[in-house]
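Re: that chain you flagged

S.,

Sorry for the slow reply, it's been a week of failed gels. I finally had a moment to sit down with the sequence you sent. For the record, here it is as I used it:
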Amino acid sequence: MPFQPLRRRIGAFALLAAASAVGLPAAAQEKYPSKPLNLFIPFGPGAATDTVARVVAEALSRELGQPVIPSNRPGANGMVAIQSAKASPSDGYNVLFLANGVVNEQVIKKTSFDIRKDLIPVARVVQAPLGLFSSNSLPVSSVKELIEYVHKNPGKVNFATSGVGSIAHLTTERLRLASKLDMVHVPYPSGTAAMVTAMIAGDAGILVNEMGSMKGFVADKRVKLLATLDDKRNPIYPDAPAVSETGVPELRNFTASFFFGIFVEPGTSADRVDLLNRAVNKVLTEPAVRDRLVGLGYAPANIGAMDLTQFRAMVGDELTRIESVVRDAKIVVQ
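Prediction finished late last night. Pasting the structure tokens below so you have them in one place:
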């Protein structure tokens, strides 16, 4: 039977193909992405987080060939957005856009949510140093003068933050501990506008904040920028010293920054996480995207350019720093 071996070979190939198909996971058979992605944002339209997220979403839509749809889920210090993502499939189509301030607050409040276990860091979008700002009501013009003034007036200088556990709160507590300062914490949960209004009125003496949003207030001299909390000057404020230049020994290596990043839920396949990391880093090299982010106050060197290992290490370092500050400053969330 000359055709028997051929039929056997065809049958064997068919069985092999069937076995291979059964052995392949569904994710490997599906082209990714093949449908729109949801980008959960923990703040409402117009917030700095929202503005940057929409720049990234627009660019990623072009790069991935699928719409990346911004979905604002404000509330509960970021937990509404986080829970929205957790309630969605872990398939790479549901992505979180978070700032480290949101991450910090969830760690401090000891919710049932565990950042280390319940989120996968995917990509850094932007990172920028924070600035130390002073009210004109304080007779100081440098970090050294501020420290001397607070030492002479213990308990009389208020520092503004957006709330317990916020990045401004934690950073100012680090500053207070390093310099042995006795200051009073006054939270303004409604954000930058309320904090700056308090500083202009003299109700708050100092503020640690993101530098881009403070540019107009510094330019018209409604507040003073004492230093960039970094080891080098910020190109937005080239005349302001880096904290390492201020001549305060205990602050020589003091740095503080905030970041925006992309996260997904555990269970998302490694190949999809890797694809998202590469896509984010690629779009952040586009001149038009970089120009928009620079226009929002972010230095080119602080945009993108982190692989998965680097970003995860950065997030891990941030969490360790948070836990140390919470312990040393004895921060208690009511």
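What I noticed first: The first helix runs from residue 4 to 23.

Talk soon,
D.
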